[in-house]
Amino acid sequence: LGPTFYRGGGGDDDDDGARFRSGGGGKRNRGDGGEGGELESTLGRRLDGRAAVVVLRVEGEDRGDDSPGEATTAKAKANANAPTTTRYLVQRKSSDYPIPAFRGAVCLFGGNAEPADADPLATLRRELGEELPPSLAEAVFSADGAGLKLVGTSTHSHSARLMGRDEPYAFLCACYEARVPSASVTDGVLDSREGSYALLTREQLLNDERYAWGYDAVMSRYLGRDVRHFCDGATVTREDDDRLKDWTPPPE
Asked: Low complexity composition bias: which ranges (predicted)?
């Protein structure tokens, strides 16, 4: 499988950071048609799952408290030179998520492949269409933006103990990066959707958060520094991107 570049070990239950939380609803975590039913089907693939996810960078200018209507020429010039603020939009697993070890942990947007998905981008487009508001999902694939960039391919292996099951589970993961403007991510937009969201800084991701599904390793590599909290029982191994050519998952 190639060299292992991160192995989970330890971690605690810190759960800090700014959040956006939707009003009511949310995906069901158990039962047919809910997240639990989908998860059961996915775990049935045992050591041959597939997933496509995205590191969602939200970029905008920090313009302070000035109102545009009151800005003087001097203020306008200062605002034009204001530093760009980058945050990251992630999903936070619910308190009743079917895998207890991942409850309250953050996770990258995206999800598991289905047999009809021709490639990782098809999986990612379908999953983001289910998880994000349409305008934000389209911004991820926008041709006039920075565009999607493949940042790595890896195998994520999870012990049976971590899964709370009789068998371990592993999946091949295609991870992308997308940059979207801060104007596309607002309280109002996210409040209309299901689920729980967190909009976090680089330091919060590195120091405060726990991660689901081995994404602690992905974010450590992406951010250029080890995150503080790794998940015990998860091992992530780098892979050659050519492995993504065989994307169709096995029958459930």
From this structure: 71-83
Instruction: Tell me how far CA of residue 244 lies from CA of 90, 147, 237, in angstroms.
Output: 24, 19, 14
Strand bridging mode 109-112 / 234-239: unpaired
User: pLDDT tens, 123-163?
Assistant: 999 999 999 988 899 889 885 545 789 999 999 999 999 99
What residues does each domain of the chain span?
4-62+83-245
pLDDT at 18 over 80: no
Apex 177 CA angle, 213 and 183, nearest 5:
110
4-62+83-245 belongs to which CATH class? Answer: alpha beta
pTM of the model: 0.76
d(CA 229, CA 211): 8
List, in order, residues 6 or more apart from 29 with CB less than 8 Å away: 35, 36, 94, 96, 97, 98
d(Cα 190, Cα 226) in Å, to the nearest integer?
29
